[in-house]
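Justification of resources, computational component.

The compute hours requested in this renewal are based largely on the per-chain cost of generating structure records like the one below. Each record pairs the submitted sequence with a full structure-token output. That output is archived, and it is also reused by downstream analysis tasks.
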Amino acid sequence: MLRASHATIASLVTVAGAGFCALALSAGAPGFSGTLAVELIDEVDHNHRFRLLRDLAFVDANGKAWLAPRGSVVDDESVPRELRTLEGLPYLGEYRKATIVHRHFSRSRAAPWREVQRMLYDASLAEGVSAPQARVLYAVVYAGGWRWEPPGSSCFRSCHAAAPFLAWKPMALPAEIQPVLDWVARSGPGLDEIDARMDAAIAKPGPHLFAQ
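The structure output for this chain reads:
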């Protein structure tokens, strides 16, 4: 990775930010603003964590900007490690920008988890992932990725009133998920249909991690 002076990086961030603002002002074709530049800060059990050296944003078709700002610490584990061998997933390098922005919002929880999962789908398409593989990626992350409740939700008002935050991953098993992925590959369903089929297939979606 090429390194630049702080002044050069600041100048580049300013230029990228100007382009980012221009993209965010009008709806149109989804796309990325900024350049993916990261610093590897540690490596534990093959779990890479990065610090962003520049702003990176995905601007969706409605003009909404999903900004992962410079200095954010993220990883590239949108797909849980235990589900990476499922069939039909794209290679991580094909959606690297999408997963970095997705993981920033998964960590910050600055938007509802369902919106963040759908942003990953749109961003992976914008990065060049084929529609069939983007649907499989979305289905796997929907099934086994992080979910969270916003403060003030019904969960916080009842059984989790003392919790500072509430985030969890469903206990989704490959044997539960693969038949749904086979159906996704055959049928090319919409995202609402994928949600419904996965909801029916996963026995322990959480947050209480028993059948609900």
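The first helix runs from residue 6 to 25. DSSP finds seven helices and eight strands in the chain.
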